[in-house]
Design goal:
By secondary structure, this protein is α+β, with helices and mostly antiparallel strands. It has eleven helices and 14 strands. Strand 13 and strand 14 form a beta hairpin. The chain is rod-shaped.
Length: 484
């Protein structure tokens, strides 16, 4: 059984439901074997104890009957004893054996029984044989008659008792095997039906591999396998969404790259033709070169933005806290150089958090560049950091209501922004960076009618002390211990 079970479980290509059915059958077989052996042993001990008790009672009554006439067995003979299904003999202290009159086999005494005759102490019970080799259950008790000491041996054939025990063993073995077979069949059915969700998962993986179709699997039930199926469906949905985003990114990037590449090729062809024919008027060559430089700048920015968007979304927190005021001030300094005629109204409260200062500065700079791009000459760009919220607003034309849901989409440009420089990826980078830092960003209209962007970042207004952790109201660690 164990060898068969090992052979079944060691075959890796055998179906899982077959292995589970084998395990169930083996477990039931072990339980049945232990129960059957225990039942057989307990029953055997109980039957022999009962038989010994009956024989000792009969021996006691017989001893009282023959006392006073022990040598003549009190008139008992083999015929009378066989009627009671017992046989009897006396063993005298001098080892002489006395048998009842009449034909029949005789018991064979043991040393223990001869000792009882000599000492007249104790009783014995054992399994022995007669002179014909028949198995008997034999008991012995002391008997004293006059000056003589005896051991009275009384035996009963074990044939009927052994027959009952054989029937019991056969019944236990037969029904035990039937129980194992039934348990194996039931285990196979249960394993096969219980593993259907796994089979569906397997079929789904094969289908995805062969057809490249990310179709979800139908759910059924409320067990752990259903949870596994639900998680697998979530993974398929994530893969489908990622593939869709990747396809859109490639398509949009190809569309956006086509325009600057076409313009660059046209300008280069003009310069090449001018080298051969001198067809350009004076000063045109310089304008074309400046146009090429500007297009290369836009092309470089677009490539950089695409590389930034292709990075992993996860941000590895630095062990040193970041004061967001420093990041915002650095971004405002850069924005002032790009909008020399604008007024920057900046008020910043402290906000400490863990994050990447370079990516945060890039995101905030993108928002400030957007404000500079659309602000009128002499306009004001307002920057406020209050609590865990950073607001950047301008006095430009603002964002139309129909454009608000799409301003953070990749390559999305409103009608007002189609003729302005830029890659169309700046706000998408802002959304990705802020989300990676555990926050959110949303667009709206400012009080002056311009655009307003609000960023929320988890942090603390209190600078962390050495060997201390900064947590929010829910106990989430915002700043880890920074001591060495």
């Amino acid at each position: 059984m164990i060898r068969w079970l090992r052979s079944v479980l060691s075959v890796n290509n055998r179906p899982l439901h077959d292995r589970l059915a084998a395990l169930v059958a083996a477990a039931v077989a072990g339980a049945v074997a232990i129960t059957g052996v225990a039942a057989y042993i307990i029953t055997t001990v109980a039957v022999y104890n009962q038989l010994d008790g009956e024989l000792l009672d009969i021996a006691g009554l017989t001893a009282d009957w023959i006392r006073g006439d022990a040598e003549a067995m009190g008139g008992l003979n083999n015929d009378a004893l066989q009627t009671a299904n017992v046989t009897m003999m006396l063993v005298r202290a001098d080892n002489q054996e006395i048998f009842p009159p009449g034909p029949g086999s005789h018991l064979v005494p043991s040393a223990d029984e001869r000792a009882i005759a000599r000492t007249q102490i104790g009783t014995s019970a054992r399994t022995g044989v007669d002179t014909e080799g028949t198995a008997y259950r034999i008991v012995a008790i002391p008997l004293e008659d006059g000056n003589q000491q005896y051991a009275l041996l009384l035996g009963r054939p074990l044939g009927p008792t052994d027959q009952i025990l054989r029937i019991l063993a056969f019944s236990l073995l037969t029904f035990g095997l039937l129980a194992v077979l039934v348990a194996g069949a039931i285990g196979w059915v249960i394993a096969r039906s219980g593993l259907q969700p796994i089979q569906r998962l397997t079929d789904a993986v094969i289908r995805v591999t062969e057809t490249d179709q990310l179709k979800p699997i139908e759910l059924g039930g409320m067990d752990e396998l259903t949870d596994l199926t639900r998680s697998f469906n979530t993974m398929l949905g994530t893969l489908a969404s990622s593939r869709d985003r990747q396809s859109r990114l490639i398509a949009d990037a190809g569309h956006e790259l086509r325009t600057p590449l076409t313009s660059l090729r046209t300008n280069v062809e003009l310069l090449t033709a001018d080298d051969r024919q001198g067809m350009l008027p004076p000063g045109a060559r310089g304008e074309i070169l400046r146009d090429i430089a500007a297009q290369l700048g836009e092309f470089t920015q677009l490539i950089g933005d695409l590389v930034h968007l292709s990075r992993e979304d996860k941000v590895e927190a630095h062990p040193e806290p970041i004061d967001l005021r420093d990041v915002v001030n650095s971004s405002v300094t850069r924005a002032r150089r790009r909008g020399p005629g604008l007024v920057f109204d900046v008020e910043l409260d402290p906000l400490f958090l863990v994050g990447e200062p370079d990516s945060l500065e890039r995101a905030i700079t993108n928002l400030l560049d957007n404000a500079v791009k659309f602000s009128p000459p002499g306009g004001t760009v307002t920057v406020r950091l209050v609590g865990d919220r950073l607001r950047i607003s301008d006095e430009g034309p603002g964002i139309a209501e129909s454009d608000l849901p799409h301003v953070f989409d990749r390559f999305y440009r409103s009608d007002k922004a189609r003729n302005t420089p830029g890659s169309g990826l700046g706000l998408s980078i802002v959304a990705q960076t802020i989300k990676a830092h555990g926050g959110w960003v949303k667009a709206g209209r400012s009080a002056s009618g311009g655009a307003e962007f609000t960023i929320r970042l988890p942090g603390s207004s209190t600078p962390p002390e050495e060997d201390a952790e900064v947590t929010d109201s829910e106990g989430t660690v915002l700043l880890p211990r920074i001591s060495g």
